[in-house]
Amino acid sequence: MLELKTYRTQVHNDWCPGCGDFGIINAIQMTLMEMQLEPHRVAIFSGIGCSGKTPHFVNAYGFHTLHGRVLPIATGARLANPGLTVVAVGGDGDGLGIGAGHFVNTGRRNLDFTYVLYDNGVYGLTKGQASPTLPKGVKTKSMPAPAIIERVNPIAMAVASGYTFVARSYALDVRHLKQTLRAAIEHRGSAFIDVLQTCPTYNDINTKEWYGGEDLPVKAPRLYKLEDSGYNGVVADPSTDEVNAKKGNALVKSFEWGDKIPIGVFFKMEVPTFEDQLDLRMPALRDKPFVEHDIYNRDITPLLDELT
Amino acid sequence: MIGGPQGSGINSVAETFAKACIRGGLHIFANIEYHSNIKGEHSYYRLRVESKAPHSHVDWVDLLVALDRETIFGDLNKAHPTHRGHRHEVSPGGGIIYDRSLNLTPESCGRDDIKLFPIPYMDLLVDALKEFGKDKELSKYQVMVNTIAFGASLGLADYDFDLATEAIREGFTGRKAALGDLNVSAAKHGYDYARKSFGEEAFPTKLRRQPLSGKRMMIRGVQAVAIAKIKAGCGFQTYYPITPATDESEYLESHQKDYNMIVVQAEDEISAINMATGAAHAGLRSSTSTSGPGFSLMAEGLGWAGITEAPGPVIILYQRAGPATGLPTRTEQADLRFALHAAHGEFPRIIIAPGDVIETYYDTFDAFNYAEHYQVPVILLTDKFLASTYQDVPPFNGDNLKVDRGDIVSDSDLAGSTDYRRYRWTELGISPRTIPGQKGGIFWTTGDEHDEYGHITEASDIRIKMMRKRMRKIELAGQVIPDSKKATLHGPRSAPITLVGWGSSKGAILDGMEDLKSDGIETNFLQARYVNPFPTDYVQQVLGSARRKIAIENNYSAQMAGLIREKTGIGMDNTIVKFDGRPFSQNEIYEGVKDIIKNGMKEVTVSHA
What we know:
Chain A is built from twelve helices and ten strands. By secondary structure, chain A is an alpha/beta fold. Chain A has one domain (about 5-305): Thiamin diphosphate (ThDP)-binding fold, Pyr/PP domains (Rossmann fold), CATH 3.40.50.970. In chain A, α4 crosses α5 (about 100-110). In chain B, about 40% of the residues lie in helices and about 20% in strands. Chain B is built from 22 helices and 22 strands. In chain B, the strands form three sheets. Chain B has an eight-stranded mixed β-sheet with strand order 6-5-4-1-3-2-14-7. In chain B, strands 9-8-10-11-13-12-19 form a seven-stranded mixed β-sheet, with helices on both faces. Chain B has a six-stranded mixed β-sheet with strand order 16-18-17-20-21-22, with helices on both faces. The two termini of chain B are about 15 Å apart.
């Protein structure tokens, strides 16, 4: 039985007190423990920013990559070494600003991995500029002027890009996040979780109290669970029109924002993964990943003969 | 030379002709020039055939095969003309094969010293198609006029038609075999027509088969790279479509099933290099291939591979004329400094610049060993010219090539370990690595400065140690890799003139030296093959005692000459540069050196445009 402490490191954590990141990392460690995944079979990848430090705090193979490039690096490692459970994490600026091209194209591949987006609406480590998920017109305390352009919708982008598991959760609801994370890791295919998160230092708009709906005329939490509302985003038969219908539902739902914000699974469908497609091309991959094959004694004679 | 609009099939004809020559014991050098265009713009293929293997092309043509008028006269009638055709390149006594309907005369060509060989392309094609009952489908087979012209050129050169038949058939195997018969027939129609209409004496240059000197491969740079990658056990290749690198990735993808190799078309070159680095960290030998515009995007990822001491990737940089899109389908050697300095900060990288297809094969193989042994990114610096030029060479002998995966900690050594350090201090700077998935081998890696475990640090003492550790590796590589691999002196040591060059100009320089020699000018040639680690001592030793030193480079500023000066303090006496996007020819080397020694020019720019 692997204990929670197995998944922790002794590295000093320098996130701000009250940071939403703590909720996310706790959920990651607890999920790995609940799934009893051996640390050496897990690889955590991150981009740059506060969230980028995540791998250093988790006892698993850890890759702290470049700003916006977490997905390509995770993709290469996962394809080379598919025995690993791959979890990529990154901020909203990392994934939807500088890394937006990779976000879209990684979805298209339907690689079997999980991507967790730390979505707090600001660039924290550079001291609070507007991130791609901050709504137009909003001005947080460190911004000189309100956001001048529209935000992107991570859920809609993920659905449109081809992620086959698209969910939203909340960093301060560790129970829900854990449950969502486990479903994402267990999903065969590209799983994306948009994790709404507070930044107590720079985002003074989307605070814990704001998510709790304390500013509303009738105080009530803004977040509600999709599954409690009768919404079902799971495609039962991917060979039917149901796929487009469910994608359409997810898109409509994803634009719901304001007094009521849905969390939970927006869309889910099981179809062949990128790894499955590679297996079809190269049956040798089915037995074991290339990283375990002896590919270092290849006979090139047929290639040379072709040229003579 | 065969010229025509893009899409008219000059490639297949030139390559089939080349193959037929190699089968007849002759030797070839075949390079193509084409526009960044799909259909219609002028392109031409230069095929040089010799009884002794040539290493370069020349700027004159004995037989010009024109598939259209523009090949002869250029496009001077256009609002923005780009070339004046090839009629002026035909050597006195040489000839032009062209469609009879062009009604050429010596006057219209402006040449009364060459032979004109009008061929009724369409009539002959219709005759050939009739034999197969396909003359009603003329429009479908119209492109086959290239094969009529091909046959006519064989006929004028009086070459053995059986060898051509064999070469054609090889291009049409399986379901396409019937098309092969049709092409053989078309070629025969052109062949017979030329022999019957113009007679034996019409064209004095004859091709005669000679005894085969063992097996020969017809191979170009992209294939040499790809085959070396397969031989080296590369398991992961990424790319984003770009001229002239993509052919290599497509070759690999078409053979991936036989060799178990993942080939990924990435969304951009940023992704391409980072995927490859991720795969290298995860345990596979990995690679990516691109040209200048793509490499510009890779700079950031190169730095991450450097600071994380990734065991790869191997990056193939096919230089083309820049900056930006530049001349997208033309060659240049102007990325030497860029390859050396790409990405911010300082970190070790190995850069090798092979001079021909054979060196390309061996250097690519070595690149994978270096990447894993030293845990550094390795750049193979080549160019469009070498990538796309065919030569015939003996089949590679790979028996003595050994894969060196570097220091990987075994599972048994890790058993019970709780303190593995990915970046452990070692005397040589190389830390034994683990492969993710190994129990006890957990590591962290980061583009931030880090401690032995791979955790972020900003401590100045650790920074100093880590910088020294990383930079120690390139110093070590410089000591371990022998000078014989890093640089070569061709020709007599005592020659009064030393030509200095690198990369794909090697062939033209070697052939040009022969011309100079027949003119009584003795030269030698210092070929710098490793850009980093640089063979400083060897170059210093050779150039220190050299008398006149002439740098020859396919770029504007003689970048290697600058690097040599930086490393050794030795400056060149003269430079011969070419930056018109075309490779050096044999005669340009001769002409450039003559301009310096006979005409007293200090810096020479050559171009045969």
